[in-house]
TrEMBL record:
Source organism (scientific name): Rhizobium pisi
GO BP terms in the entry: methylation
Protein name: Methyltransferase domain-containing protein
Record's keyword terms, sorted: Methyltransferase, Transferase, Ubiquinone
Highest taxon in the source lineage: Bacteria
GO molecular function: S-adenosylmethionine-dependent methyltransferase activity
InterPro entries assigned to the protein according to its UniProt record, in alphabetical order: Methyltransf_11, Methyltransf_Superfamily, SAM-dependent_MTases_sf
Pfam families recorded: Methyltransf_11
Signal peptide: none
Phylogenetic classification of the source organism: Bacteria, Pseudomonadati, Pseudomonadota, Alphaproteobacteria, Hyphomicrobiales
The Methyltransferase type domain, residue ranges: 59-154
Length: 261
């Protein structure tokens, strides 16, 4: 791989990876929603930062199978889901048809959406920022797509941060010879780590680093919200013990920021 095509190759690999994950994506806790308690937690968080939709235009970036898109639709937003994996979009469209929702889905790159400028009241995304090759440029793109006064809501976390539970998982593997339970095969996990090693947030992704890039892009009134315990507890109850414990201690957060106007 040479420097002329490094970015393209990373982006291409990311798209292919998530396209392959599409078939089993909704089987994983933390992707699809498996309890009413978790659903209510997400709905609370969305309304806390974005209010009621009231027909306002929302762009859900890297929408995957449309889990967040449907939560936004339930809150009354007019939702467009964007993803560059055709496999994910196929499942998102099938899910929307089954549920009878009018969510619009488009194929596109979250770092260069090609959506009209000043056209959305809010932008949402979950577990996207860590995959960005150039988050500074992506945030500028999101700033441009938002209407003046519009908000972005980022749902993510500092997954690369070491926790005492990760240490416990490693010890368990050493003692038993069995890896900790995972929703990915060893081959897919290796590909995941290879991708992670080449994106902007290759190691840790502290909320403060994301905030700095949002501020550089022009966003104001930036709020970091770590009060997600109801969501994480609901997810942890559906996971194997060590994975559930890890979910409870991870530094996961929501970041809400506004475009002045």
């Amino acid at each position: 791989m040479n420097s002329m095509n490094t970015n393209y190759s990373i982006r291409d690999e990311i798209r292919d990876f998530w396209s392959e994950r599409a078939a089993t994506f909704d089987q994983s806790v933390g992707h699809e929603i498996f309890s009413e308690a978790e659903r209510k937690g997400w709905q609370r968080l969305i309304r806390k930062h974005l209010g009621e939709g009231q027909g306002r235009a929302a762009l859900d970036l890297a929408c995957g199978t449309a889990v967040i898109s449907h939560l936004m639709n339930d809150a009354g937003f007019k939702v467009t889901g964007l993803d560059w994996s055709d496999a994910m979009l196929a499942r998102a469209r099938a899910k929307a048809k089954k549920r009878g929702t009018d969510i619009r889905f488009v194929s596109g790159d979250a770092e260069n959406t090609m959506e009209p400028r000043d056209s959305y009241d809010t932008i949402t995304n979950r577990h996207l920022v860590w995959t960005l090759v150039d988050p500074a440029s992506a945030f500028k793109e999101w700033f441009a797509v938002l209407k003046p006064g519009g908000k972005v809501l980022i749902l993510d976390g500092n997954m690369g941060k070491e926790t005492w539970v990760k240490g416990l998982q490693k010890l368990w593997t050493e003692i038993t010879g069995k890896p900790a339970a995972s929703h990915m095969s060893p081959e897919m996990m290796a590909r995941h780590q290879k991708i992670r090693s080449r994106v902007h947030f290759a190691n840790e992704m502290p909320a403060e680093a994301v905030v700095d890039l949002l501020r550089e892009a022009g966003f104001t009134d930036i709020v970091v919200d770590r009060k997600l315990g109801d969501i994480h507890w609901a997810q942890a109850r559906k996971m194997p013990f060590l994975r559930g414990l890890e979910r409870m201690v991870q530094d996961r957060f929501a970041i809400c920021a506004r475009k002045p106007g």
